[in-house]
Amino acid sequence: MSIVQFENVTRIYKTGDHELKALDKVSFSLDEGEFVVILGPSGAGKSTLLNMLGGLDSPTDGTITVNGKDISKLSENELADFRASTVGFVFQFYNLIPTLTVYENVELVSEISKNHLDAKQMIKEVGLEDHMHNFPSELSGGEQQRVSIARALCKNPQVLLCDEPTGALDSETGVMVLKLLLKMARSYGKTIVIVTHNQNIAKMADVVIRVKNGKIRSVEKQDSPMSADEVEW
Amino acid sequence: MLIRKLFRTAWSYKSQFISMIIMITLGMGIFLGFNMEWYTIEYDTSRFFADTKYADYRLYSQDGFTPDELDSIASIDGVDAATRFLSVNLDVKDKKNKALALDVSENFTVSAFVVTSGEGYDRNSDGFWLSDKFAAANGYKTGDELTLNYQGTDIRGKIVGLIKSGEHMICVADKNQMMPDYNTFGYAYMSPVKLRSVIREITESSYAKKYNIPEEMMDTVVSAAENRIFGQINLLSDMDKEKLEEAVKDKLGKTIMVTPKDDHMVYKEAMGESTEGKTMGSILPVLFLAIAILTMVTTMHRIATKEKIQIGTLKALGFKNRRILRHYTSYGLFIGIVGTGLGMVLGYLVCKAVMSEDGMMGTYFDMPDWTAATPFFCYPVMLGTIVFLTLISYLSVYRQLRGTAAQTLRPYTPKKMRKTLLERTKLWDRLRFGTKWNLRDLSRHKSRCFMTLFGIVGCMVLMVGGLGMRDTMSGFLDLLDKDISNYATKVNLVDNADSKKAKDLAGELEGDWEALTGISLGGDTVTLDVVHNPNEKLNIIDEDNRRIDLSNEGVYLCLRLKDKAKIGENITFSPYGSKDTYTVKVIGCNRSIMTESVTITDTLADKLGIKYTPTAIYTDRKSGDIPQSDLISGKQEKALLMDTFRSFVSIMDGMVVILVVAAAVLGIVVLYNLGVMSYVERYRELATLKVLGFENKKIGRLLISQNIWLTVIGVILGLPAGIGALEWMITALAGEYEMKIMLGPLTYCVSIMLTFCVSLLVGLMVAKKNKKIDMVEALKGSE
Fold first, then answer.
1. Which of B63, B209, B302, B468 is buried most, with the most CB atoms less than 10 Å from its CB?
2. What is the complex's ipTM, to 2 decimals?
């Protein structure tokens, strides 16, 4: 069953007289529970695509349907509600609130999500129960990203969106984070969309979408994706 | 190229730059304005006093001074000039509620005047020199006829010139009038020759026939009357008071009341205004400059940390530290120069708003020259401020430049978070996210939090101080109008009025009367107020503003003299011009808001044998219904008197408006600047919250709630600080009166509400920016 549907989505950025077409009539659909990797070089439009999907930005043209709801014409507040209930984000640079502890950063989502999961449980599952009361600045990069994953999943979203989640980590930590991301998403039955330029991550995906110059070059379904341990990093 | 960068960077931090420039402008403007004001008062008045030979000392004698006595005093070594002087308040004939102080300076070497139009001084002239302001207010011009009434005798003459005199620079009829009102009261000079002819006329018409005075005796009788009427010698001298008193005593063989110019109303008030300016010029600007400099420190530090990567890039490109320092230091220099320049303009405007013919003091002082002058110390302060601001930006950038280019290229890392005591308690876990977030933010950004508090407290202090000043002044006027003065007209009596006749007149008018005389109490010159007030027209009130039914068992000390003796103890005083001393018991304290006085009933004064002459009668009769009498020198309706007080209050109102506007500007500028800084610093966090699904409103509430907390704390701290400031302002601005702080509930409400409004307004302005958060941009790059 399709959970994400992009139909002729175009995004144009205007700077003075100059126009930049970041996405050009992009169409694709994703099924529930899939692990999707969006692959492409810098400036290809993959982050724009993820931002559209996450309700951080709205298309200039076209429709985006997530979980049966057209989000392309939503107001600011409706988009906020959408982000609070439907999607979870994991960023390259974690974006934790530096003034809140690990627990508080995860617990934070209870302020906005009615359907949230137990924060302590999530922290335990990402293996940070001993760091529950530490501040982000007291954690390593990998640990911070694990907090970010816990926070994203704690909202109990249908789709987990990750923008270069291993980009700021060394390869060993990156693999560990990817494993965790997959494990958590699978066990909670979430659709994961990862944006990256790392070809290796694509080997683990159910679906690989290749983007170039704002257009979809290909959408490949992989019947037998590799596990993180099988991929040569 | 770097210059171009300088302007572009300044533009990108425009709200910070503008707020710093505003703060420096305000601080410098208020500093210069008030300091220029007091210096201008001293500068302009001292020139005017010198031009009009304003007396350094005034000698008073109830029996008058003879020409020989004048010569003796003039011969004292150290006395530069001396003249017999007369100043008497007279009604202008056939003009309702118009009176003049008529002066005669016998030899015109002291207490003279400057002519603004018409003829110069001539000791044989038959005309009057009239105050130009009184002339303008009442439509008189040179050549017009003027008739004054002196004890039933008309004194006629042409107006030969329009003048200004230092003796009447603040032209009020008596101590009860706070502000000049040239529609009702002015001054004029006439020559000693004309005075003598007036005395001769009165003597011939009144006494010559009655007492059969032969013609050859007339000169002697007129001279005797003249001697008696010249009850004052004015002199120019640098001697100190004690030495002069001794010398006068030696020459005349009796104690004479010697009052230095510091005790003369005009000089005292002028210097009082100067002192007020000095006080206002010392504390208020310090508050503003301190906030400006603290704002500068926090803002420059933040700009430097935000520019860290750019600083590193310039360093990596090969720019020398010195060049980079010079580039960033020029920000502080730029702010300092622009702020100080604008501050100079504002200072001049503030000074002129107070000290100019059309300014606040224009209705108070009557002088020909209003040149604005700047005290010398202001120049090093201006220069020092520019240097200091430059130094602040130098140090902020220097800190970022330490280390290698690679180190500088790394983004600024804030201090590590540590748990506070509260966070270790169970209470912390129960707090909502917003509360925790804001508490942590405040503990992490202490300087910003402290600055915000400082801004709110400053805003509150100025509001309470300004509005409280108005309340206190209104309360003071109410007290004067309703509690103390229960009469319709004050009838001023001539000097040396016959006591019995004066008392009879008071009886006829069904009024109360008082007699004011100068006494020496423990070395200080104070007023002895002999009061007869059974009709409750003139009330003596206690500390709680209730009327005291005066007892004949002793005297009452006013609150400002209560340290002289405790109740039950005795005080000893001696009237000026008399060798007698009196010892009486103190039986209570009273509020005497105008003078420092000892109050005694007429019954007790008579019993002790104190000599006095009633000076004023207070009656319910309207001035037109009061019969003509030789005893009356002038009449003042309370309503008109209260109008002069109200114009004094309107000057205060000007000050209140300045303070309240300053409070609002201070609040808005400081809070907005800090609000924007806080917003910029938390931009990434706010973007994260937005990405997580927080609505703009909710984020706005988070930001505003922090403002509200700080405002509540600021208001709690600001209220007592405001009351303290009010006390200070009352002493500084109205030290010559005995005033009690009065703060109406409305003032509390308005001050608190306005402070909250300022805080909320700024909070909303900052919160509105949430809508513009670019989540995608904000979350790019590392922290």
1. B468
2. 0.74
